Amino acid sequence: MFSETKKRIGGILEEAIANKETAGALVMFLKDGQEEFFEAHGLANVEKNIPLRRDLIFRLFSMTKPITSAAVMILVDEGKLDLGEPVREVLPGFRGDRVIIDGEKHVTPVPMTLQHLMNMTSGLTYGGEANETEQQTARFLAECEELVKEGKGLTTREFALRLSRIPLAFEPGRAWQYGLSAEVLGAVVEEVSGLRYGDFLQEKIFGPLGMRDTGFYVPEDKQDRLADVYRSMPDGTLVPFTGDQLMVQYAMRDRPDFESGGAGLVSTIDDYARFAQMLLNGGELDGVRILRPRVVEYMTSGNLTPLQNEQLVKFFGLSGFTYQHLLRQMRDSGSYATLSRDGEYGWDSWTGCYFANIPSENRCMLLLEQKAECGTTQFARKIRNMWLAD
Known about the structure:
- The protein has twelve helices and 16 strands.
- With 390 residues, it is an alpha+beta fold.
- A hairpin with a 4-residue loop joins strand 15 and strand 16.
- Helix 1 (3-18) packs antiparallel against helix 12 (378-389), helix 2 (65-77) runs parallel beside helix 7 (181-193) and helix 6 (156-163) packs across helix 7.
- It has two domains: 3-72 and 198-389, Beta-lactamase (3-Layer(aba) Sandwich); 81-195, no CATH class.
């Protein structure tokens, strides 16, 4: 990369920190499997003035979802799953058969399939107030969090089965809505593999790829490497955020009963870089094959319907993107608000973690931070522009 570009990226990060947009961030660019840029700016703990460093562990939240997608695709590659299968046939006891239409509950004639889960077209939602499904989901999540506090947390499978009793917001496949689909996929992987979800990921992805600091909790001997989360206040200050979110425990000290396929993992920038590069390589890294090339090609391609894409753009502002297999996927790069490339894919998270792969140029961008209620930040988009213009 040009030295002037590197200088500008550093300036963008320092300005964001000075403006209290974040406490700090790590940024890495890869090209042809080699690191071409890495910088750490800011603090892991503001109160103790602890600087960010490369080996820090970050709560991934929704950047867990691409790993869950890969886990499902491994089972597809092994001939153990068909994405066209109804969920209830793969996960005994799963309902997901009622839908709310005009305020009334009906039995849906369209069964929810694994593909619906992979594409967020299942009718499952997160908690909210917009409709009865969101309201019931919010109450369910609150009940689950109370059970965790009482030491009676649900397992991954139990969570999925109880969630399936809530009526769907829409008939599967008819619309798109971000929700708890990936959490159900974690239970599907458990059912098909016979392993706890975290054990499957360790055996099939983390162990083979050498992702030594990725998992659903942080052991005691690594706790000092776990970065703290901050939240913006109305007066523009940053304050520590130590609450639990979506049943993910803030402390991350103990292995949870519920291993969330949509939000539960922690990782380092080097670990996630190995996962991202494996996908860019068509499913292989350092002589270890995780997925076959055509399975990766399928995983990172696809399209929503026009109506579903409108809902995606309305929810996330992702003009030019579609969404398939728990990934945003660029189909019209000229429509997005930053420089981009057709065929790009990736995702971001509630804590601001972000990755983008550009297959046509064998390039990857990774940004890790810990800022609550964040998503893709303005400074992340500015850095994208610097990266893709170089």
